[in-house]
Write a structure and sequence with these properties.
Helices cover 55% and strands 12% of the residues. The protein is α/β, with parallel strands linked by helices. The strands form four sheets. A six-stranded mixed beta sheet has the order 10-11-12-7-13-14, with helices on both faces. The chain has a four-stranded antiparallel beta sheet with strand order 6-5-8-9, covered by helices on one side. It has a two-stranded antiparallel ribbon with strand order 1-4.
């Protein structure tokens, strides 16, 4: 089934519900349904932040407040029309999120949480004390939204407006997640992996932070013209926690959780508020306690929120393959075989008093397969991380096609034509093989966030999927393209990593212990693949510790011990080198 067809399968029912809602729902239910829609916009941004990008924000209520107060001031003080104040409300929310994002996104773990909490608390007090905002009593008498010939101040018409905004927002976010940018967003939880394929993780994280703030600002603008009054009360840290709670209840792994969470929380709260005092004769904290117990029971056995319970046992259906009209990418121009490609000169890395890599030198020529071996603790992983930009050299030089790359970040190194695999498999287990491999083609360019949300990226998306399918077939996994990558055995997951690296059309392929943890049959299959790639002219640098695996594959070997190069040459030369026999082979024979 085509992705557009799947989209319309839920868009059409949503449109029907939008039209029939005011006719079917009783007047008493329209207001709660409208608030669910207002909360759903905020939770949709939190699904992007928390579920997709792996960021936790306790400041979303502040962005809601910025949107609400900006419109309230412009409309009540300066006489703007409500619709005219919408761009200003979004602009203020977006710019503040952009500034806050660049200041806080680089903070890790609890520091990011504390930063957004401080932001929320500061904005709350600013709203209450800044002259012209009415203090903690707020601003009242704000005019409602209207369209020529239609008054949107009534509950029935405002319900339609709020849910129309939700429909547009959910379609745009759904389009975004089904794109090149969406795959990059889902890779942000592993920034080292994402950067290895050209993703500018900081900028993309800030962009998602801004998008979530815009959705919150839109909710604030709608809210202030729904209730006709604004004060700091709904925009404190407690409200931010409440929005995050709704998102977690619904489920952060799916955009459906952004709708389900607010609906369940709002319905439960209203139900318990109306029934508990009549049954028990008390309310207040007792009502809150019952609410907490009910939510815990609902979430029992489901770490992915309520949406995962609803989808349990259902089949997502295969991800689309590239359509027939897809055009292949033009390949990168590669140097002639034998041309010097990578040159390492005096490369050194110190961690305090420990020298992990000590004045290492070697060359890699185009078309060859160079192996780097050594016992555990020899410095192989540190060397690999220096070559790929994860670590910055203390001394020495790395030249790629005669250009210095030592100290460049992984994203820029990937853009030069260097792709890599990882010592410990790094894939998105919840994404299909096709989606994981398509991530490797991210650096080959394509539309950004806005074009992806408007679904103007289909031609480029077809090319990316075409490239991914070609590489999957190249490594022998064509029949598994639409399977979840996490369901494959380790050997095939390593092939997925290699296919993902090949999707970037690398000039140099770096493989970090690709045989680690594989059984003999899987190692033999991997060896056959590497021989095939070498015959196709792929230049490779293979870091390994398995001597039997390496000796029959490589053209030349570099041997490390305690961070130093102790030997280099052909496999026969290395095997007969006394230093290698003492450091490595002799130990194995013993």
């Amino acid at each position: 089934m085509k992705p557009v067809s799947r989209l319309w399968m839920w868009v059409v029912p949503a449109l029907v519900a939008l039209v029939l809602g005011p006719m079917i729902l009783p007047p008493s239910a329209l207001t709660p349904a409208t608030y669910i829609g207002l909360h759903a916009l905020i939770c949709l941004g939190l699904v992007l932040l928390v579920g997709m990008a792996g960021l936790t924000s306790f400041g979303q209520a502040a962005f809601v407040g910025l949107g609400a107060y900006t419109s309230a001031v412009l409309v009540s003080t300066f006489g703007w029309a409500p619709w005219a104040s919408l761009p200003a409300a979004l602009l203020v929310s977006g710019i503040s999120a952009w500034l806050l994002g660049w200041l806080t996104i680089s903070l890790a773990s609890h520091y990011l949480v504390l930063g957004t909490m401080a932001w929320s608390i500061s904005l709350y007090h600013l709203f209450g004390t800044l002259p012209g905002l009415g203090g903690y009593n707020g601003i009242g008498g704000i005019s409602g939204i209207s369209i020529p010939g239609l008054d949107l101040s009534h509950a029935e018409t405002f319900y339609v407006l709020v849910w129309t905004a939700n429909l547009v927002a959910f379609v745009c976010v759904r389009n975004l997640m089904d794109s090149r940018m969406g795959r990059a967003i889902r890779s942000l939880k592993d920034p080292v992996m994402a950067q290895a394929f050209g993703v500018w993780t900081t900028r993309l994280n800030v962009s998602i932070f801004v998008l979530a703030a815009l959705l919150a600002g839109l909710s604030g603008w709608l809210n202030v013209h729904f209730v006709s009054v604004v004060n700091p009360g709904p925009f404190g840290i407690g409200a931010s926690i409440d929005y995050l709670f709704m998102t977690v209840v619904g489920g952060t792994a799916s955009i459906g959780g952004a709708l389900l969470g607010p609906a369940v929380v709002e319905v439960l709260r209203n139900l318990l508020r109306d029934t508990v005092p009549g049954i028990s004769g008390v309310g207040g904290s007792f009502e809150i306690m019952i609410f907490g117990v009910v939510v815990i029971l609902l979430l029992r056995g489901s770490g992915g929120g309520l949406v995962s319970l609803l989808l349990r046992g259902t089949h997502r259906g295969p991800k689309p393959r590239a359509p027939e009209y897809a055009r292949a990418y033009l390949g990168r121009s590669h140097p002639a075989p034998g041309t010097p490609l990578l040159q390492v000169r005096g490369l050194t890395k110190r961690f305090g008093g420990l020298t992990a890599v000590d004045s290492v030198e070697f060359d890699v020529s185009a078309g060859e397969l160079l192996g780097v071996i050594g016992p555990n603790g020899a410095g192989k992983s540190s060397l690999f991380n220096l070559l790929t930009g994860v670590l910055t050299p203390t001394d020495g030089q790395i030249l790629f096609e005669n250009k210095p790359i030592g100290g460049l970040n992984p994203r820029r190194i990937a853009a030069l034509g260097i792709s890599r695999s990882f010592q410990h498999v790094r894939i998105r287990a919840d994404m299909t093989v096709l989606e994981n491999v398509a991530l490797g083609a991210y650096g080959r360019g394509g539309p950004g966030l806005i074009r992806s949300m408007l679904r103007l990226d289909r031609a480029e998306e077809a090319r990316i999927l075409f490239e991914a399918q070609k590489q999957i077939q190249r490594v022998g996994l064509a029949d598994m393209a639409n399977m979840p990558a996490g369901s494959l055995p380790l050997g095939q997951q390593r092939l997925v990593e290699i296919a993902r690296a090949l999707a970037g059309d690398p000039t140099l392929l770096l493989l970090d212990e690709p045989a680690a943890g594989l059984r003999l049959q899987e190692k033999n299959a991997l060896a056959d693949l590497l021989r095939q790639l070498r015959s196709e002219g792929i230049t490779m640098l293979l870091v390994e510790h398995d001597m039997d695996f390496v000796m029959k594959l490589v053209d030349r070997l570099v041997v490390l011990q305690y961070g130093k190069r102790i030997a280099h040459g052909s496999a026969d030369q290395v095997q007969n080198d006394p230093k290698v026999i003492e450091a490595y082979l002799g130990g194995m024979e013993a």
